[in-house]
Design a protein that fits this description.
This protein has 14 helices and no strands. The protein is mainly alpha-helical and 306 residues long.
């Protein structure tokens, strides 16, 4: 129980980031709603926006769970808790934020002159054109997979990992890069209005494989190592668990946890792919039926002609 109810914190940067994001999102959502019409299509879009709102709010709550709850404190004591924190940053917060589609509401939540200036810069300036070209390159699925895998491997190099436990700024940087890499990757799988994934549904399975297999390699190396990888935990007093058991439990968390969100996403992706193929088959059958009917009608007309 002590793990759950003690050592809550209030990191100023985390609280400020969550509060600013929430205010901009809610303000922008109200502005969009106030300008929407009353047609059936507009009401449906409004309903969808407010459904997405729950996902975005869930993402903000999980930011607080990962970075302001006792998880953040105990992650400096137990390696396995640290891995729970990493899994939340990589696998929970990014998809929730993306499903919330906060980009247009947050843009509309800014003061009108600021939002207009941003849009003018993006679409009319040379810097904006360069940004869009860079975004197209960085948005390639292979780049996203490489960035996600590379971020995980980089921060789990023993020297880097131990350094994050000693240097707070480096630890904050690690957290930010995890969230960014997660958004980068999950954007290839589920999209986030007004952005859409580049890949067709079935091809997204390869993105999931490109993440899971390297992660399993890291986990196997960690789980079957004959010595502790991270010496920083050896100096923590009163841990109540050996370094090797701690490392083995952390490896198990890293093995099992990713399979849950990626498994759900893979199932959803395959279902959408099969549904799309079924719809295309029905459309093709309808076209063939109409073609045969038209040919038969034409043939009968030609046969009856003088």
């Amino acid at each position: 129980m002590n793990l759950l109810f003690s050592h809550w914190s209030a990191p100023p940067t985390v609280l400020a980031g969550v509060l600013i994001s929430l205010v901009l999102y809610e303000r922008g959502l109200r502005r969009i709603d106030s300008r929407s019409g009353t047609s059936a299509a507009e009401l449906e879009r409004r309903k969808r926006r407010h459904t997405q709102r729950y996902a975005f709010l869930g993402g903000l709550v999980m930011v607080l769970v990962a970075l302001a709850s006792p998880i953040d404190y105990w992650s400096d004591v137990y390696f396995w808790v640290h891995m729970i924190q990493h899994m939340i940053l990589l696998l929970v917060i990014p998809p929730l934020v993306l499903l919330g589609a906060p980009w247009m509401p947050m843009l509309r939540g800014l003061p009108v002159p600021a939002s207009r200036a941003i849009l003018r810069w993006i679409y009319r300036s040379g810097g904006g054109r360069l940004l869009r070209r860079t975004g197209r390159v960085l948005g390639h699925p292979l780049v996203a997979v490489a960035a996600f895998d590379g971020t995980i491997f980089f921060w789990h190099v023993p020297a880097m990992f131990d350094a994050t436990l000693r240097i707070p700024v480096l630890h904050y940087t690690e957290h930010v890069t995890f969230i960014v890499a997660g958004l980068w990757l999950w954007g290839q799988l589920i999209g986030s209005h007004p952005f859409s994934p580049r890949l067709e549904y079935f091809s997204r399975i390869w993105v999931i494989a490109g993440v899971l297999f390297p992660n399993w390699g890291l986990v196997i190396g960690m789980g079957y190592a004959g010595h502790p990888w991270y010496g920083a935990y050896a100096s923590v007093p009163g841990r109540g668990i050996s370094l090797m058991n701690d490392q083995g439990l952390a490896a198990a968390i890293m093995w099992v946890t990713p399979m849950i969100p990626f498994g759900i996403t893979a199932f959803w992706t395959l279902n959408k792919w099969l549904s799309k193929d079924a719809d295309e088959d029905e459309q093709l059958a309808e076209l063939l039926y109409r073609a045969r009917l038209e040919a038969r009608t034409t043939g009968l007309s030609g046969h009856g002609a003088p």
